[in-house]
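USER:
Working in pairs, take the chain set out below, taking as long as you need, and write a paragraph about the fold.
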Amino acid sequence: MVLVIYTHTDMEDIWPVFFDTIKEYMSDYKTYVFVNKHSDSIPANFIQVHYDDSLKYTERLHGCIQSVKEDVILFTHEDMILYSTPNYDLLKRYEGYVENGKANGIKLISSTPNNFFEKSKLDETLVTSGFSKFSIQPTILRKETFSSLFENKSYSIWEFEDQVDEAELHFMSRIGGEKKRGIYHYDSSVYPYIATAINKGKWNISEYQDELNPIFEKYNINPFDRGIA
């Protein structure tokens, strides 16, 4: 499995935080970065894949994924910042399910509109709900599955999530006892990350103040420069 990160240079002020956590917690994973243009601010050992800024979000991703050589990816965005050690054993297990076709996608966070989750027979740490379909959250899936999600589509990031169809064998990770955040989603016990650190261009203080304040101090970030939400 390899990491695939989508970003844009207008998020460059987030990069030091995000890339440091990737190097700290996910250093064993080969990493691709989909970005609009080359930047020396991206770690030298990360593979940059560039997209045309004039294209829609779905077109950018479909084009970039063709440059990834490996079959199984963990897809994420630059504002989904890790704040604790992932459960590497479960990540490896999930990778195996995707690789052998037992799962088409495993989202590393759980969410539901009604607090009801149906447990999967595949694995006691996997569940389904009305939100199991692919969304813009850290997800393990095959490159070909990822590519098919974006093929022949021309949508912005917000339009895309509304257009994703329900799909079979798409699961969410849920061990049990995870803290609820916001209206629908819960913290991840497998891949502990801020979902998401940036909300409509501003720091998401309303949901993640305890996680973000140490980051602001460590990286000497004034959150009011970008704004808070």
Summary: The chain has seven helices and 13 strands.
